[in-house]
Amino acid sequence: MAKRLGRGTIELEKKPNIIGNAAVVGKKEGEGPLAKEFDEVFEDITMGEDSWEKAESLLLKNAVKKALSKAAVNKDEVDAIFSGDLLNQCIGSSFGLRDFEIPFGGLFGACSTMALSLIMASLAIETGGFNCTVAATSSHFCSAEKQFRFPLEYGGQRTPTAQWTVTGSGAAVLKQTASSISPYIDKLHLGTIRDFDITDANNMGAAMAPAAAKTISDFLTDTKTAPSDYDLILTGDLGFVGSELLRQLLIRENHIDIKSVHNDCGMLIFDREQQDVHAGGSGCGCSASVLCSHIINSIRSGKYGKVLFVATGALMSSVSSLQGESIPGIAHAVLIKGGKA
Amino acid sequence: MAKRLGRGTIELEKKPNIIGNAAVVGKKEGEGPLAKEFDEVFEDITMGEDSWEKAESLLLKNAVKKALSKAAVNKDEVDAIFSGDLLNQCIGSSFGLRDFEIPFGGLFGACSTMALSLIMASLAIETGGFNCTVAATSSHFCSAEKQFRFPLEYGGQRTPTAQWTVTGSGAAVLKQTASSISPYIDKLHLGTIRDFDITDANNMGAAMAPAAAKTISDFLTDTKTAPSDYDLILTGDLGFVGSELLRQLLIRENHIDIKSVHNDCGMLIFDREQQDVHAGGSGCGCSASVLCSHIINSIRSGKYGKVLFVATGALMSSVSSLQGESIPGIAHAVLIKGGKA
After folding, report:
1. Which chain A residues contact residue B50 at CB under 8 A?
2. Rounded distance between C-alpha atoms, residue B239 and residue B162, angstroms
3. DSSP state of A79
4. Which of B54, B129, B191 sits opposite A2 (nearest CB)?
5. What is the C-alpha radius of gyration for chain A, rounded to an integer number of angstroms?
6. pLDDT (tens digit, 9 = 90+) per residue, B156-214?
7. DSSP state of A290
8. Smallest Cα–Cα separation from A82: which of A99, A62, A102?
C-alpha cells in the first residue's frame, strides 16, 4: 500500500518500473543538443500528414509504438494508457491512440501532462488492478502556434520571453516487475493550481514558476529532504526566464537553493545561441521528449540515481486570455530513481 | 489491494464511500423532471458573471462547495480533486477550482468525464496515499454551443438527432471510512476508444453508442454478471437516438438485452414533450448533475442497490470535424452500490 507523506504526496509501495521509453521529435529538435538521444526525428514538419494536428497524432502514435517495442510489450498486454495534449479537446491523444485499442484515461494538464500521466499510470499500477500502463503526451509547434497565437503565415514577431513549442512526443511504459529494475517511480506529488496574476501569454515561464516553486517546496517538506538529496531537479518547460524566477522564488519564499541541482527541459532541448528560440522550449512534448530520452536513459546508465521531475503547465486558453483572465499555473512532481553507478 | 478482473476492469478493496454529492444547474434543467433533486438552480444563464465560460466555472465551484458542505468536509481535508470539461483547455475546471487550493488532476473525457473523474478519485483512494478525494465536472449550454457549433445569436436550426448541452455541474466527495457506508464505489472499468466512422457532429448519440456497448459488454464479461444483476444500467448522455442504438448494438453484437434495466441521463433530465430538446440532454454536466442528485440520492435512500454508471464521451473537436475526421467515442463505467431497502 502507498504511504501518504503529505497532502497530494505519496510514496509508492510497488515502485512501478519504467520498462520502456521513447521520444519522437521534429527537425528543429533533431538539430539540438539532444539529437542523438531521440528514437526518431522527422525531417518534414507535417510528417507526411495533411494537417499539423494529424502530424501531432502521428508523433504520439510513433512514440507509444517505439516505447512498447523497446519494452518488448505487446499493445494487448497494456491495461491502460494515460495521455493528453494542448490541442482543443485533446485531439492529439484521441486520434493518435485510437487504433491501439487500449483502455484510455484522457488527461489535461497543459505542459505538465508528462508528469500527470506518469502519476496516473503509477497510481493505476499501485492499486494492484492494472499490470502494465503507459504514460504519454505530445505537442507540435505549428498546431500550437496556430491555436494559441497567430497563423504561421502571419510571421508574427516573438517577444524575448516567448518560448518555442517543441514538436515532439514522449512515452513511458510502466510495469511492476518481480525485482526492482532501474529506473522506477518512487514518490509522486499532485500539484495545486497557483495564480500570480500573470496575464502575458508570451511569458509562460513566469506564469508557471510560482506553481513549480510550491510543488518543489511541498515535496521537499513532505519527504523531509533537501535539494542536495537529488542528482537532478528537472523542471518541465520554464525556460530561461521561468527557471531564473523559480530559483529566486524558492530562495525568497522558502530559503531553498536549488541552483546546483536544477535544470529545465526547455533549456536542455535547444541550443540557445544557435537555434533562436528566445526563452527556450515549451509544450507538453518538451518535457516528455527530454524525459523519455536523455533523462531516463541517463538513469538507466547509472549517471543519475535520483531525479525529481517537475513538469509545469499553464492552464489558460485563448478565450480565457481574451476575457482578461490571468494564467493559472500547475506543477506535478514524480521522483524517478535508479541504481546510480 | 484491488483485484484485476479483466483489462481495465478492477474491483476495489477499499470501497470508497460517496460521503457527499451535489448538483447545480441552470434554469431549463430546473424546470425539468428532476427539478426538486438539484441543490441549486440558477435563474440567470450567466449566473451573474460576465461570460458563459465564467458562468460554467461558477457552476462547478458551487457544486464542489455544496458537496463538501454536505459531506461535512473542509476543503483543506481533501487530498485531490479530479475534474475536466468540454471547454478548450478545460478552463471551466482550472478557473472554477483555482481558489480551492486542492491538489488537482486535470482530465479530458468529454461527456464521459464524470465517470472518468470517479475512476481517478477512486484509484487515488485505493492506493492508500489519498484520504479524501473529489470527482467533478461541468458543462454550459451557451459556452458549448458557441465553441462547437454556431454563435447563439445566429439562431441555427437544430437537427432531430441533436442533443441539448446541459447547463450544470455535479460533484462527489469520496472517502474510505471505517465502516462501509452506502453508497460506495465497488468496481470500475476504464473504457477503450471506439470509432464507427460517424461524422455527423449533430448526432453524438450515434458516435458514442458503440463505445458504450463495448464498455457494458466488457464489464459484464469481466465481472461474470448479466443485466438482471443490476437495478439500473445508466448511460451518460446517449439521449433517445443513441440509447436505442446502444440497445440494438448490444443485442446484435453481444446477445445482451439491457432494456428492462437501462436508462440514460440525457433522457432523464429533460421532459421530451414539454422542453423541446430533440434527442435529449448531453454535455459533461448532464450525467454529472443527474448522477450527483437523483441517482446517488436514490441509492442512499435504498431505492437502488446496484447502479452501473456508464458515462459516454465524443472525443472530437471542431477542428477534427472540419478536417473530415470521424468522431471517436469512449465510455467509462463505475459500479456504485448501496444497501437496497
Report:
1. 323
2. 9
3. -
4. B129
5. 18
6. 888 999 999 999 999 999 999 866 678 999 999 999 999 999 999 889 999 999 999 99
7. H
8. A102
